[in-house]
């Protein structure tokens, strides 16, 4: 909600003296975009709500104005459905005998799934001592119907796989998990569900490359937030100015900057994700539309509206040690007075908690850039995360630093090292 008049007066004063501090990024534009995204009219931008739709339309209009190409079919909206299943019933047999339904979990978006060993499903076996998480995610992301036979040594962990059913994408293949001591010679499973469907959309714009057009560099942030909640001092709108209207503002500003430069050898993809706050569904769906081998780098931008623990002209990079991308960015910023640091909050596992994680797990040098003091960020996930609490001058400096530091990557001169699978294990 709106702050008192004095706060607005001070903010406008700051704006007046800040506009000359950035050569590449116009502070007035930063404030304009940020103020629209975090306005009360957006109703907190919760995924799947009219406020979220309004924000998506605004971002799409900004991408069009910047001169980006639509992602597909003339639209900047990358639409998809998320299904929330309600379990209705399940029957199973193994080797001709009834099988405990508690030892079967069916992940599907179909009202009825019926299968036997002759149904043509791919079989995945998880033996004692195997990497359960890795094999489960491999089956889910493999794009094929699969039966995953899990050894009973994982009996305590098995019920947790129910969480995989909470919300699913349209077109998700059927994956059946069975907890069994031996590989059955015959089995049958019949499961029924009903579904609640929610339509969502990322906003994506493309700036085609030249000599290396087939390779992509992604700039992203999430535009959703918490929406409406319990009123605090009469305010029930969680505006999410820093989280993450700030990152989305940066993406729009970078789109305008690179379009004006018009010298990118690699294709640039600008993405505003939905549903980060409710499970990262937007980034997950987005990542499935790309060949990870062709994504040279991902700059995910999250909460850059406040000073970092080192003060102004600084930010940190999550997963800094997992690739040499951070070193490349630092080298490109030598002499500018701006510094990128490694993530100072490793205990919070931020590398795995933001929208970079899905592509990073596929080997892409995908990192999140942030300034948020995660051990003491005063307005994080509160109704007071509003435009008046942000430092627009510093935001512009951070966006400019991202533009300058990414130059050698978008030109194709530098290609950051890939994330190794062993580096993803916590």
UniProtKB/TrEMBL annotation:
Domain Peptidase M28 positions: 202-404
A Pfam cross-reference name: Peptidase_M28
Single Gene Ontology BP annotation: proteolysis
Gene3D superfamilies: Zn peptidases
UniProt signal peptide: 1-18
Matching InterPro entries: M28_fam, Peptidase_M28
Keywords per UniProt: Carboxypeptidase, Hydrolase, Protease, Signal
Top-rank lineage group of the source organism: Bacteria
GO MF terms, alphabetically ordered: carboxypeptidase activity; metalloexopeptidase activity
Designated name of the protein: Zn-dependent amino-or carboxypeptidase, M28 family
Species of the source: Cnuella takakiae
Taxonomic lineage of the native organism: Bacteria, Pseudomonadati, Bacteroidota, Chitinophagia, Chitinophagales
